[in-house]
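Hi, here's the filled form for the chain we discussed.

Project: internal
Contact: R.S.
Residues: 419
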Amino acid sequence: MDWLRTAVVDEALRMATALAIGLLMGMERERNPSAKAGLRTFALIALFGVTLALLGEKSGAQWLPAVGLVLVGALLIGAQFRDDNGQSDPGATTIVAGLVCFTLATLVWYGLATLAVMAAIAATVLLAFKTELRTLTLGLERQELISILQFAVLTFVVLPVLPDRPLGPYDALNLRQAWLMVVLVSGVSLAGYVAFRIAGQHLGARLAGLFGGLVSSTATTLVYARHGKRDAALEPLAATVIVIANLVVLVRLAVVTAVVAPSLAPTVLPVLGCGALAGIAGALPSWRATARGTAAPALPLGNPTELRASLTFGALYAVVLLLAAWLNHVAGQAGLYAVALASGATDVDAITLSAMRLHHLGQLEPGAVATVVALALLANLAFKLGVVFTAGGPALGRRCTLPLAAVAAGIAAGAWLLA
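And the returned structure, exactly as it came back:
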C-alpha cells in the first residue's frame, strides 16, 4: 500500500502544480477589464490540461491533449468574440495565454513541472508588464534594435552551428569557444549600453565611469581626456570617470574568469583584487575633490554588438590564441609573456581569454595565466595613461597618474605574492 500512497501523492502534487499555474496566470488576467477569461477560467483550463494528460497516459490515447488544446482555443475564441459586435479588442493575448496555460499544465503531468512553472512565471510577467514593455519598445531607436538583433544572431543563430572540437596547430583553436568569447564580450558591452541608456548620465561621473568601462574603457578614456583638455573645470570629473572606467575593467575580467574558467579564480582574482583595492585607495583624494552634482559630459556610444567590431574581436582572439600557443611551444612562457605585453596594450580581453583557453588545453599553468593577465593589464594601463597625457594634456595626466599607477602597483604586488 505504501507504493500506492506514494503514487497518489505524486499525482496530487502534479495536479496542484498545474492548478497553481492556472491561478497565477488567471490572477493577472482577472485584473484586466478587457479579458473575458479570468482567475477561475484559467484555473479550470489548467486542470483540464493536466487531467487530459493523465487520461491520455493511462488509456494510451496520447492524442487527447491535442484535442483538448483545440477545444480550449475554440472556446476562448468564441467567448472573446461573443456579443462584442466588433467594438472591443479581440483579445488575442488572452486566447494565446489560455493555450499556453493548457500546454504548461500538460507538461506538469509529463514530469516537466520545474520548466512549466518557470515558463508560467515568465508568461505572467509578460502579461503584467504590457504598458512598460510597450513603452520600452517604442523608446528604442533603430540602432538599438539593430544592436539587439545582431546580438541575437551572434548568440542563437551562429553559435549553435559552429563545430565544438579542437582545430588548427596544437589543437589550440575551437571555433565554438572562440565565438562564445565574442558573444560574452558583446553581451557585456550591450548590458553596459542598455544600463547607460536607462539610467542616463544625470547620476554623475561615477555612473558614467561604470557604464563607460563596461562599454569600452579605451573609448571612455579618450573621450573624457578630450573633455578635460577642452575645459579645465572638468578635469577632476574627467579624471574620476577615467579611473573608474579602468577599475571596472578589473571587475569585468573577474566576472569573465568566474564564468569562463572558474578553476582559475583562486589564482587570477587575487591579482585583480589587489589592483582594484590599490586603485580605489589611490583615487579617493580625486573622488572627494569631484564636485557633487556636476553633470558628466555625454559619452558617445556606438553599436556595442556591431558585427564588424564583433568579428574583429573574434579574429583577434583566434590570432592571439594561435600565436600564444606557437610561442609557448617554441619559446616557452617567455614568448607568451611577450604576446601579453604587445596585445594587452590595446585589448586585454583577447590575450586573457587566450591564456584561459591554453590552460583548459593543459598547456599553461594557473600561475602563468595570472602572470599573463597581469602583464596585459600593466601594458594596457601604460597605454591609456599615454592616451590621457596626449589627448588630455599634462594637467589631467598628473591627476590620473597616481590612481592608475596605484592600480598597476596593486596588480604587480598581487602577481608577485602569487609567484
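Let me know if anything looks off before we file it.
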